[in-house]
């Protein structure tokens, strides 16, 4: 991971390319449990029986990270919010967008864990790459999750 990523600032760069798989447009935090269930079902349906056990932990991390990014967008971004799961050649790409195009993700690396608000740090710790960009009046926060 680059020093930029470890400094508490998210890199300002476009996400890698990927094939769109699933998407959502939540308006309320109360919609997140349904999105988590739908994503879990979709991931299981997309996995072969032989790979299901190996992929279970990866899928749970993917669901956790999508939930965290959507939650952040709904709490700190500006509507409309959208979440997208893409597949790359070797990993999963999560992209969450909102209309707060000029407001970057702002993790606080010195924050006391007892005060909460550690979601972006968790996303950074559990992924192989992450960043954000803006275009067309939208901010796109993204993270890449690769198999272990």
From TrEMBL:
Q: Which UniProt keywords apply?
A: ATP-binding, Kinase, Nucleotide-binding, Serine/threonine-protein kinase, Transferase
Under SUPFAM superfamilies, the record lists: ATPase domain of HSP90 chaperone/DNA topoisomerase II/histidine kinase
Return one GO MF term: protein serine/threonine kinase activity
Q: The organism sits in which domain of life?
A: Bacteria
Q: Sorted alphabetically, which Gene3D superfamilies does this protein's record hold? A: Histidine kinase-like ATPase, C-terminal domain (3.30.565.10)
* Sequence segments annotated as region (Disordered): 1-22
Ranges of residues in domain Histidine kinase/HSP90-like ATPase: 50-143
Q: Does the keyword Transmembrane helix apply?
A: no
The stretch of residues making up the signal peptide is none
Full protein name: ATP-binding protein
- Organism per entry: Modestobacter versicolor
């Amino acid at each position: 991971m680059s020093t930029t990523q470890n400094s508490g600032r998210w890199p300002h760069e476009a996400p890698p390319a990927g094939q769109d798989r699933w998407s959502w447009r939540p308006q309320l935090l109360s919609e997140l449990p349904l999105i988590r269930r739908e994503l879990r079902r979709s991931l299981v349906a997309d996995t072969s029986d032989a790979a299901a056990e190996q992929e279970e932990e990866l899928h749970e991390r993917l669901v956790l990270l999508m939930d965290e990014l959507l939650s952040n967008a709904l709490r700190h971004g500006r509507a409309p919010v959208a979440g997208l799961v893409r597949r790359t050649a070797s990993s999963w790409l999560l992209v969450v967008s909102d209309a707060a195009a000029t407001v970057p993700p702002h993790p606080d690396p010195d924050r006391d864990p007892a005060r909460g608000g550690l979601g972006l740090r968790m996303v950074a710790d559990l992924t192989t790459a992450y960043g954000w960009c803006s275009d067309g009046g939208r901010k796109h926060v993204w993270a890449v999750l690769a198999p272990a």
